[in-house]
Amino acid sequence: MIEPALKTILESVRERRGRVVALTGAGISAESGIPTFRGAEGFWVIGSRNYMPQEMATLEMFERAPEEVWRWYLYRFGVCRHAEPNAGHLALVALERALGERFTLVTQNIDGLHRRAGSSEARTCCIHGDAAWVRCAEGCPGLLPLPDMGRRTARDRFTVADRARLTCPRCGGWLRPHVLWFDECYDEENYRMDTALRAAESADLLLVVGTSGATNLPMQIGRIAFHREIALVDVNPEPNPFAELAERSGRGFFARGSAVERLPAIAAALGAEEP
C-alpha cells in the first residue's frame, strides 16, 4: 500500500524517466539478521576492558593491535557471510534492472548483501568498503579477496596460520580489511566518493533506506538532494535526519516502515518488476 502523496512523487519520477539514487544503511541489513554496527553487540573485550566499534574500527587500533582488530572483524564478517539478502535488497535489484543507467546504489553497508542479491558492481558505490576484500596496509596497490579464514567465533584465538593468510604477497606486511575506519577519510579510489556525489548531483529522486545519517558522506548526499529540491523519500521505522529533510522538502515523503515492508511497492511504482 502506497500513500497517495508518495504515489504522486514516484509516478512523477517514473513519467519523467528520472534518475534514482538509492542510499542504504544498516537498517536494510538488520532485517537479514546483521546487528547494527553501533549497537551494544558490537563491543569487543581485550583483557579487562570493553572496546566499542568507534575504538576498534580505527587505523590507530589496527597499528597498535592488528591481531585483535582482525579477530573482531573476522567474527563480524562471519555473521555477514551467513546472512541472506531480504526482500528489500531484491527490490533494489529489480529497480536497477528496470532503470539501467538511470540507477545508482550508494550503500554504507560492508556486508555484501546487495552484491549477493544481484546489484551490479558498476552501479554500486560501497562508500564504507566491502568485507569480501582486503588490501595492503602499507599501500601496495589493488584489492585481494578475503582469504578463507574458516568459520569464526568471538572466542577464537589468532594463530600463526591466520597471520600467514593475512600477509601481503608483495611486501610481507599486514593485509587490512577493505573498510573505511573512523579515523580515515572518504576517497574515490577505495570508496567511490566522487562517483556517489556526482550521482546525487544529477538525480531526480533520492531514495534513502535504513540509515540514521550518522556519517558524513550520506548526509552530504541528503543535503544535496534537499538543496536541489529533487524528490526525497526516506524509508525508515523511526524518525531521523533524512526523514526531517524529506518532510521539510517540497517533494519529500517519510515512508515510515521497514525496507522489507516498503521497498517492493516503491520499486514497483518506479517501474520495477516483481523480484
Quick rundown:
The protein has 275 residues and is α/β, with parallel strands linked by helices. It has 13 helices and eleven strands.
Note down, in words, how this protein is organized.
With 275 residues, the chain is an alpha/beta fold. It has two domains: 4-35 and 84-129 and 188-269, Rossmann fold (3-Layer(aba) Sandwich); 40-82 and 132-179, SIR2/SIRT2 'Small Domain', CATH 3.30.1600.10. The protein has 13 helices and eleven strands. The protein has a six-stranded parallel beta sheet with strand order 5-4-1-9-10-11, sandwiched between helices. The mean pLDDT is 93.
Q: Mind sketching the topology for me?
A:
Elements lengths: L3 H12 L4 E5 L1 H5 L13 E3 L2 E3 L1 H4 L2 H6 L1 H16 L5 H13 L3 E5 L5 H5 L6 E3 L2 E8 L6 E3 L14 H6 L9 E5 L8 H4 L1 H10 L2 E5 L6 H13 L2 E6 L4 H8 L3 E5 L2 H11 L6
Parallel strand pairs: 1-4, 1-9, 4-5, 9-10, 10-11
Antiparallel strand pairs: 2-3, 6-7, 6-8
Low-confidence blocks of residues: none
Assembly status: single chain
Largest sheet: 6 strands, parallel
Strand content: 15-25%
Annotated CATH architecture of the largest domain: 3-Layer(aba) Sandwich
Could you report the average pLDDT, rounded to the nearest whole number?
A: 93
What value does the Rg take, in angstroms?
A: 19 Å
CATH topology of the largest domain: Rossmann fold
Order of H and E elements: HEHEEHHHHEHEEEHEHHEHEHEH
Structural class: alpha/beta
Name the helicity range: 40-55%
Query: Would you count the extended β strands for me?
Result: 11
Number of helices: 13
CATH class of the largest domain: Alpha Beta
Total count of domains = 2
User: What would CATH call the homologous superfamily of the largest domain?
Assistant: TPP-binding domain
